[in-house]
Design brief:
The chain has about 160 residues and is of the alpha/beta class. The chain has one domain: Hypothetical Protein Ychn, Chain: A (3-Layer(aba) Sandwich), CATH 3.40.1260. The chain is built from 5 helices and 7 strands. It is globular and about 50 Å long. Keywords: Membrane, Transmembrane, Transmembrane helix.
């Protein structure tokens, strides 16, 4: 299985790591290719934000109900940070693994994590700021894995 990871926000970080670690636990060989904003998920120090804009389906459990957040609310200063804090608290309260824990599980499960060389160069990231387990490769490296995969996901 191969997964292209293109988003680096808290809410977009969960699907690739959950799917990748679940597949690895089922003895599937998994390669995750982190490119553009997804590459930030391989930084040693994570400071993940929560995406409120462009997410009209977002509802937060509050006061026993599911409170929808109008898309425009994300433009109000501080709302995104507050929503992120609420989400992190909810994740902790419900006992959901953190992204750091899921990333560590991926490492322990021998999920191959490839950081995009072009993105490293484009955004001027320093290799020393990234996790040691990250391999570096480009589109051809990903394609080599994808062409041999039964499942290819773009997240």
């Amino acid at each position: 299985m191969s997964i292209i990871v293109t988003k680096g926000s808290l809410d977009w970080a969960y699907p690739p790591f959950i799917l990748g670690t679940t597949a690895a636990a089922m003895d599937v060989e998994v390669t995750m290719f982190f490119t553009f904003y997804g590459l930030t998920l391989l930084k040693k120090d994570l400071n993940l934000k929560f995406t409120t804009l462009g997410n009209p389906a977002m509802e937060m459990p509050m006061m026993g109900m599911h409170m929808p957040m109008p898309n425009m609310m994300g433009m109000v200063p501080g709302v995104g940070a507050a929503a992120g804090k609420m989400m992190k608290n909810l994740i902790k309260k419900k006992g959901v693994a953190s992204i750091e824990e899921l990333r560590e599980a991926a490492i322990e499960s021998e999920v191959k994590m490839i950081g995009c060389q072009m993105t490293l160069d484009l955004f001027e990231y320093d290799r020393k700021d990234m996790i040691d387990e990250m391999e570096i490769g480009g589109a051809a490296t990903y394609m080599e894995k994808a062409l041999r995969s039964d499942i290819n996901l773009f997240i």
